[in-house]
Write a structure and sequence with these properties.
The protein has 6 helices and 5 strands; from the N terminus they run E-H-H-E-H-H-E-H-H-E-E. The protein is an alpha/beta fold. A 5-stranded parallel beta sheet has the order 3-2-1-4-5, sandwiched between helices.
């Protein structure tokens, strides 16, 4: 199973430089053999960013599309993951260098806690060199 950070979704939605790679990851995650993982903060980030760049209707369409993928699971944020995310943010946050956000820390914590998740994909360099799980920065 692979974790798809909001960066992957936004790269696809906005036809960014790595759109093809993002689309390939989404397609790979949406298979029974691989499976994908997101959390509500991914949905929040995608919805907000699309709303800012485009409009509310487009944001709603993007979120609706994300929810329709059969093999991409949204794991709820629970207290244990939130606490672990705080630990990870404390460990990895470096002002001006690696500004791992709370949302990003939640993404890492969720991917680590989910036993079947092997790798986290993003384009955000703040995910580079996280020790707890393999991270691929596109």
């Amino acid at each position: 199973m692979i974790f798809l950070d909001s960066w992957v979704w936004l790269e696809f939605v906005f036809s960014g430089e790595n759109e093809d790679e993002a689309e390939s990851l989404i397609e790979r995650a949406n298979t029974a053999d691989e499976g994908g993982l997101i959390v509500p903060t991914v949905i929040a980030e995608v919805s907000y960013r699309v709303r800012v760049v485009e409009d509310g209707e487009t944001a709603n369409e993007a979120v609706r599309a994300m929810r329709e993928f059969q093999h991409i699971e949204s794991m709820p944020l629970i207290d244990d993951i939130a606490e672990y995310a705080a630990e990870l943010r404390f460990r990895y946050y470096e002002r001006g260098d690696r500004e791992l956000s709370y949302a990003d820390a939640i993404h890492v914590a969720t991917a680590v806690v989910h036993d079947d998740c092997d790798v986290l994909y993003s384009g955000d360099p703040d995910f580079a060199d996280i020790d707890e799980i393999e991270t691929v920065v596109l």
